[in-house]
Amino acid sequence: MKTSTLLLSRLILVGHRKNYIVPFQPGLNIIYGDSATGKSSILECINYLLGASKFVFDTEIETSVSYAALELELGGKPYLIKRDIFQPTRHVEVYSAWFDDHASVFPKRYVPSYGQPVSGDGYFMDFLLASLGLPIVKIRTAPTREDSTVARLSFRDLFKFSYLRQDDVGSKNLLNVGLPVLHTKTKQTFRYIFNLLDENIALLEEHLSELKAKHRRLTTKYEDVSEFLRQSDFKAAVSLEDELDELESQIKILENQLSEVNLRVVADSHAARYLRELLAEQKDCLALLQSDRLNSERQIDRFVRLRNDYAEDIDRISAVVKAKSLLGQASPADGVCPVCDSPLRLDQWRESFQINSEDKLAQEASTLERRTKELGHLLTEERSRYQELSVRIGSVNDEYERTSRLLDEEVSTTVSPYLAERDGISSEIATLKERRSQVEHSAKVRRLQKSISDEIDQLLRTIDQTNGKLEKMRDAAPSLHEVLSLLGDELNDYLRVVNIKDRRGVAVSESSLLPVLREREYRDVTSGGLRTILSIGYYLSVLKAAVLDKANLPAFIMIDTVGKYLGKTNASVDETDPVADLTEGVTDPMKYQHMYDYMVSLSSFAEEKQSDAQIIVVDNDIPSTIRDKFAGFVVAQFSSTGEGGLPVGLIDDARAASLPQEL
């Protein structure tokens, strides 16, 4: 199994009311449903958790979610990536555990972007590359110039070949081909992926040296930590876990005994009555605060929706003003009154009533912008109020629990036959819980020690793999022609399965590094539907190269809207020729089905090669024949109307939360 594996397990949006979870599986994963149900948001959230600079979320997510988390395997090791969706410059937290167990380990905190000063445990991009066993290198920004500057190659550069966004599916500017400066960086990234950089061997040798140095540092660190733990008489990890299980069992037994004693206690006193009344007041206060917090949450939701409405109105006004400025204004001529045949002077009436549509529009836009700004302040204040209420709820809850304990103690003191027994059990429980806390901390330290050991083992595997790559490159470094031939052959095989018309002249261009069909460059293909088929096929060809271990890239891909330009969506026709689409027959449902057939077969091929490949596709509602055939690959399905009991969207309780509570 190759080291550079990336395999998603679960996307978790941690919310105020509940958690919103999307599961994933190895191989093909299909997410489909009605428009505007949050399908694309799933991929964008994954993209953000893998280092994108921002996450453009909708109103439902903004008002329902606290933060996002992603369970995944990198290089065969489980991780949880946790990130604040509202403050993208904050540190990304990474835990070497799944979500349910992440509180039991210490997290590492990474800076999300190379543009920020390094702090914490370093850059998140470097962590991703290192976990995938990929060299951390710098590449020349202008490779044909001797004085070219160099730029750090980021995981984000590589991920452009793993995420085909909705705007890029079938786009003429796929991989920035129409933007020379950006496309040069993309071509350099392509050369890195396929070991085509002139300095690839030198870079790999340098990377290998860095890996060995890191291995020495970690080994020294592990030995120092181990020696300290030995001198401190720390128990072994297995012994600590066994002790934790035993302590949990003892605490549970004693708590059951304590409950039985409390059931036999029948007592009342003046102090107990006072504490009960106080307890009732605190309970009412807690209920009131929770109601206020719920109202605050709804107020935040209303402010966000109103702000978005204002923004749409401003956009519409701007469009009207722009249209007027482009089209000009008609100059109405003077006319005759239809009643009395008297001449009408429009200029006189306009001056009398001061009619000026441009001023009105500008004034309305200004008013809306001022209201939007005011709403921003109100939103900030309401969020602060929400946080304050949460703090007060926590404080009152603590008082409630303290009063409950006092009441328990008061009741117990009035029942002398049970006093000694109860105190003895309570004391023993407290002692055991204190011991459990100590053992849990010790177990955390042992888990940290094990994580260092695991990292050393992973480094050794990466070093072995890098040595193997280096030997292969020294013996027979691939040429650009060989790589393009490989991708062209895979693309041709894909187009054969899809069964496009006139399949000839299939290749990958040496100049653009994009598909060629019938001796025509991808960008010159006029049919948007055919470009959709080609762009998806190109990305799947790169994925297959990764499965074959011929690319410095994980065998992972996300595709947003397979049916774009294929008659399955309301895609804009700006970049397609409807006549060409008709000629190519791209709306043929069998072509659409064959694209899915190929993805299934590619998943099976990866499984045969023992490669952890994953394909995640988002699409709109698909035909029932395809839906039935590929039902086993569906991991999420949404219906805007909730038809058949399906969730209405990713945030499936947003509508219920916005409704007023019944009295």
TrEMBL record:
Report the coiled-coil segments. 194-264
Q: Which Pfam families match?
A: AAA_23
Show where the Rad50/SbcC-type AAA domain sits. 22-258
Query: Origin organism of this chain?
Result: Massilia horti
Cite the SUPFAM superfamilies for this sequence. Answer: P-loop containing nucleoside triphosphate hydrolases, Rad50 coiled-coil Zn hook
This protein's UniProt keywords: Coiled coil, Exonuclease, Hydrolase, Nuclease
Q: Which GO terms describe its molecular function?
A: ATP hydrolysis activity; exonuclease activity
Query: Which InterPro entries does the annotation name?
Result: P-loop_NTPase, Rad50/SbcC_AAA
Q: What is this protein called?
A: Exonuclease SbcC
The protein's superkingdom reads: Bacteria
**GO process annotations (BP):** double-strand break repair
